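Attaching the record inline, Q. Sequence:
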Amino acid sequence: MNVAAAPLAGLRVLDLTRLLPGPAATMHLADFGADVIKVEDTGAGDYLRDFEPQVFNAGGVRVNPTFEAANRGKRSIVIDLKHPRGCQLLLDLVAGANALIESFRPGVLDRLGLGWDVLHARNPRLVMCSLSGYGQTGPLAQKAGHDINYIATSGVLDQIRADGRPAVPNLQMGDLLGGTLSALAALTIALLEAERTGVGRWVDVAMSEALLVHHFFAHADLDAGHAPRAGETLLTGGSACYRVYETADGRHLAVGALELKFWEAFCEAAGLPDLRRNHWAHGESPGSDAAHSTIARVANRLCERTLEEWTAVFGSADACVTPILTPAEALQHEQTVARGVVRRAGDITEIGPLAQISGFRLPIRPAPRAGEHTRAVLTELGLAPTAIDDLIEARIVRTAQ
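Structure, as predicted:
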């Protein structure tokens, strides 16, 4: 399908972010047709480019696959924002943009002379999203951090445990739930308002705060007067109906039979009909001795067969039981294949879009080289070729090597 028919065709977004949370947010916008211009500095730029591992893209260039995934479909311009002429170029870009997203530490744009007041004055319709670990205000605002720090300070990491100790998850929940998806949602909200009113807003997204907002069940336990303990609550493995179990071949099953009807179906399929009433709906309290006894019965039973054998057993049972797949198995699973969300571009695995939208098919578009579109973007601003050459000579901008 022609990109012009994409849902976000005509939307222009300036992306000043690096690494994962911000680039992944604008990746989703680019996937649906937005013109995302990745603004990189004349130094290191987005240093995710140089991370290992390195593989070959469709053009035969060695790249970092995470960078490629998070920046597909964008254009890149390299500008020195510490130079007054570079700042003016960004302001010229802002004049024709719908949104700008940045992930500097709070106050950096102000020191560059590019704070919210300046940008808003240049383009009153502009929506600006500042994405940071702890927000633009508060005692931690200037603290550096990464995903592990944000899930720690939000109380999320305390509830993810293995052998009784906090365990680091492989999915970057702080970056992707707290950062990417929260920024995407908040930015979309502000863009919808700007479309109606003609006036943009400054959106302050704090990754740790967004996690805090979504930690519903732990907060519900606190409201009920209980300090949630991982492994002892309903959704952390304290009940037999919602747990991970090992199979005879050392693989694992995920049992999510929360509702009584699913638990009853599970018990019948597993050959444990006498456990049908051993469920929280019948008063078996998560984390209790009775619950641990039921867990032991189920664990012993599921250890009797292999993952493949149990997958076949539960395949026809409406019991919310699934095999725990490896990442490679998940990409090849029949459901994934049927949905058509995985494609290959060289050594790169492209997955998406975020959701299926009628009449739209995600085109394959590679991530840009640093400065690959510098000349094109500056030409769109009305600069003559000689003026662009002067900017390159003065090292205010840079083109792709």
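The two ends are 31 Å apart (CA to CA). Residues 3-214+342-398 form a domain with the Rossmann fold fold (CATH 3.40.50.10540).

More tomorrow.
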